[in-house]
Specification:
- The chain is α+β, with helices and mostly antiparallel strands and 507 residues long.
- Helix content is 41%, strand content 21%.
- The protein contains 18 helices and 24 strands.
- Helix 1 crosses helix 6.
- The longest helix is centred in the C-terminal third of the chain and has 29 residues.
- The N and C termini lie far apart (61 Å).
Length: 507
């Protein structure tokens, strides 16, 4: 029997899963770390925390399974996209990573748009955005010149883990697509773009296709993790492309909705489709020679976590005493409230928004608060608000000509049958889950298996491993009720857009 490991460097923690060659989970581990927020709207993490969590996770799954590390055929890496990791000439960290949800580089995104004009969408398939790595790098150049001068290499979060495991500085096309240095249609770095932005292209790592074996476990990493020296490490994928592979989104008509810290509606495409309004992202898929389009809600599970952390302390204690999941208790409360939460609507813009508004100044709003509203109403409103934002994402994909057959729901939010039914009622499509929701970890394990020769290709691996289950069918009576609130939800951003900007400018 051969085995594969998938490692996902997430925002709240790193998940490590050991699979057998048939895709069954043998052991898993999750180790968390903190989000560092020096200012309102800023978000950083220490890459050394990612590495510590990775080492602990690998050791834990090896200890639980008792397998011979030499039987591991390959390792795949996934991770939060866009984060800027900066190394000096000796390959030492220069600062904390500025991660995906950081909004400080809005001015630098505008600078990129002005310098590059239409070329930015022509080359990268996306408008200039503060979330992308390029804007973050320009922010450091303008605000931390001493750090910038020392920078010899930049990496993405999962690629820092690759470096620690193998000593190789590399990335792959799906994650690199979100840096805004990649020529997305050509699937290679853009020298033209680097020249326009006055960036030395030598700081960029080598870029591979996602299933390519980029390196092998070094002696030093083997000593720390317990892995065997020489174990292959595949290119891997950015978290959303990885989850899509793990959800079987490798052909047209298949759509996934991943409800993690962010919420992502993701569709496979045969060619790079581009939304000229820049409301959704077009990136290289982890399937070689294919692309994908995705809409992003910046604060999906993050909004529910915010509610939990600030208003559910008693229930957190109760959940610990009863050994049950706190989010199950929140969902139970929300289910007792009718559709529309008695006219309470939530805008999930806690960290700004990407789809469809692309506005770092946007902020969360509860609209319609009255004396009758309880904590349970607020929970229902948060879940509905995130769902409406995901509905925005799906509607744009449909406008672009993508024709869904069904939706595959994944991520922490999709564990709730209640939330999956809400998605089905709002999307008006059947919503499925998978027999096992290992998401990005399974996706990159499959990529590693392809690279190591265990599987012929990604499609054949997905067809044999991934099975749909637990279909939720739309309740069209409920759909009509949601429609009324959704129309009000959509209008609120336009009503508040200028107020968001004014608020952001108040010192």
């Amino acid at each position: 029997m051969k085995y594969l490991i998938g490692i996902d460097v997430g925002t709240s923690g790193t998940k490590t899963v050991l699979f057998d060659q048939y895709g069954a989970i043998i052991a898993s581990a999750l180790h968390g770390y903190d989000l560092i927020q020096p200012k309102n709207g800023w978000a950083e993490q220490d890459p050394q925390d990612w590495w510590r969590a990775t080492v602990l996770g690998i050791r834990e799954v090896l200890n639980k399974s008792r397998i011979d590390p030499k039987d591991i055929a390959g390792i795949g890496l996934s991770g939060q996209m866009h984060g800027l990791v900066m190394l000096d000439a000796s390959k030492n960290l220069l600062r904390n990573s500025i991660i995906w949800c950081d909004g400080r580089s809005d001015g630098q995104a505008r600078e990129i748009a002005q310098k590059c004009g239409n070329k930015i969408i022509e080359i990268t398939a996306n408008p200039a955005m503060p979330a992308f790595t390029a804007a973050k790098l320009l922010w450091v150049r303008e605000n931390e010149p001493d750090v910038y001068r020392k920078c010899s290499h930049i990496l993405l979060p999962k690629d820092y883990i690759r470096f620690k495991l193998t000593g190789v500085l590399a990335t792959e096309v799906s994650d690199a697509s979100g840096m805004q240095f990649l020529d997305v249609p050509k699937r290679t770095w853009s020298g033209e773009l680097c020249e326009m932005l006055e960036i030395d292209a030598k700081i960029l790592p080598e870029v591979f296709e996602s299933s390519y074996i980029s390196g092998v476990i070094s002696y030093e990493a083997a000593q720390e993790t317990g892995l065997a020296v020489g174990t292959p490490v595949a290119g891997g994928a950015g978290d959303q492309a990885a989850s899509a592979i793990g959800n079987g989104i490798i052909d047209k008509g298949r759509i996934s909705d991943t409800l993690g810290s962010s919420g992502v509606v993701f569709a496979h495409t045969e060619q790079p489709l581009i939304d000229i309004l820049g409301r959704v992202h077009t990136f290289c898929h982890a399937v070689e020679g294919k692309w994908h389009v995705m809409g992003v809600t910046q604060g999906a599970g993050l909004s529910l976590k915010w509610l939990k952390d600030n208003f559910y302390q008693a229930e957190i204690r109760e959940a610990k005493e009863k050994n049950i999941e706190i989010y199950d208790l929140i969902m139970e409360q929300a289910q007792d409230i009718k559709i529309g939460a008695d006219n309470l609507i939530f805008l999930p813009y806690l960290m700004g928004e990407r789809t469809p508004h692309l506005d770092t100044a946007a902020r969360g709003v509860f609209f319609g608060i009255s004396n009758i509203h309880t904590k349970a109403h607020f929970a229902r409103a948060v879940i509905e608000g995130v769902t409406y934002s995901q509905r925005d994402c799906l509607n744009i994909l449909i406008e672009m000509g993508i024709q869904p057959e069904y939706i595959v729901a994944g991520g922490g939010g999709a564990k709730s049958p209640y939330w999956r039914q809400m998605l089905a009622d709002n999307f008006r499509y059947d919503v499925y889950t998978l027999q096992q929701d290992a998401g990005g970890c399974l996706g990159v394990a499959i990529l590693a298996g392809v690279g190591a020769g265990l599987y012929k290709d990604v499609k054949s691996a997905c067809d044999s491993i991934i099975k749909l289950e637990d279909k939720k069918t739309p309740n069209f009576e409920a759909s009509e009720k949601y429609d009324k609130y959704y129309e009000i939800y959509k209008s609120l951003y336009g009503d508040l857009k200028n107020r968001f900007k004014a608020l952001s400018e108040v010192d």
